[in-house]
Amino acid sequence: MINWTSLETVFLDMDGTLLDLHFDNHFWLEHLPRRYAEQNNLHPDEAKDRLISMIMAERGTLNWYCTDYWSERLAMDITSLKSEVGDLIGYRPHVASFLQALKKTGLQSVIVTNCHPDPLKLKLQRTGLDSFVDGIVSSHQLGRPKEDIAFWKDLQQLAPYRADTTLMVDDSFSVLESARSAGIAQCLGILTPDSKQAARETHPEIPCVHHFDELLTSIHQQRSLHQKSPLPSAG
């Protein structure tokens, strides 16, 4: 599924890939509508419909992910509201084992996320995720979402990489398609980003897994063989 021996860099999405997307889905679909209804004296269903309409109108743009944008537009402190349900922030299954395996291989691992820096800070405080990887880049640092093909060229400024030796792992097929179009050699999709929802259907052209335990054996085997391969003969 993945040719680990050809890689130098592994880019990893965060929400829905390393962390359970249930936190974000619960916040945007349940907690925020409830608090928005309270603030604006609306029926919860009306508040939810109104919010979803506004949010969907920004899909695929940086505003979709921007805490500052939504705080200003809704006149609510989104980061503080997220902290109210911060106990839901957690890892997806087998993530720690997968990241530890990556570290042992010597591959460079970088989280590349659309998450705004404020909720990113909250999630790192809750999980210690930053201790497992070599770096973290938020798309807000570059002013473009990962869905924008130009993002991948700009990413070189903060996380230099060679596209032909790079893997991108993400639960968003639109992001993976953007990465492929930008020349990223290998892409991998996540089918179960939210622990409370059923798995998604596979992508017709992008390999996918449900959980990272499906990759552990191949990482160990391929990298072990690669490291043990004999040097070329001098004669």
Number of strands: 6
Task: List the secondary-structure elements in sequence, H or E.
Answer: EHHHHHEHEHEHEEH
CATH class of the largest domain: Alpha Beta
The average pLDDT value, as a whole number, equals 94
What is the gyration radius calculated from CA atoms? 19 Å
- Portion of residues in beta strands equals 5-15%
- The first-to-last residue Cα distance is 36 Å
User: Helix share of residues?
Assistant: 40-55%
Give the biggest beta sheet. Answer: 6 strands, parallel
Please give the oligomerization state of what you see: single chain
CATH architecture annotation name of the largest domain: 3-Layer(aba) Sandwich
What topology, given as strand order, has the largest sheet? 3-2-1-4-5-6
Number of helices: 9
Keywords: Hydrolase, Metal-binding
Protein name: Putative hydrolase of the HAD superfamily
Organism: Marinobacter antarcticus
Cofactor: Mg(2+)
Write up this protein.
By secondary structure, the protein is α/β, with parallel strands linked by helices. The chain has two domains: 4-21 and 91-228, HAD superfamily/HAD-like (Rossmann fold, 3-Layer(aba) Sandwich), CATH 3.40.50; 22-88, no CATH class. Helices cover 42% and strands 11% of the residues. The chain is built from nine helices and six strands. The chain has helices at 22-40, 44-56, 67-74, 78-84, 95-105, 117-127, 150-154, 173-181, 213-228; strands at residues 9-12, 108-113, 135-138, 166-170, 186-190, 208-209. Strands 3-2-1-4-5-6 form a six-stranded parallel sheet, with helices on both faces. Helix 8 links the parallel strand 4 (166-170) and strand 5 (186-190). Helix 1 packs across helix 2 (44-56) and helix 5 (95-105) packs parallel to helix 9. It is globular, with a radius of gyration of 19 Å. The model is unreliable at 229-235 (pLDDT under 50).
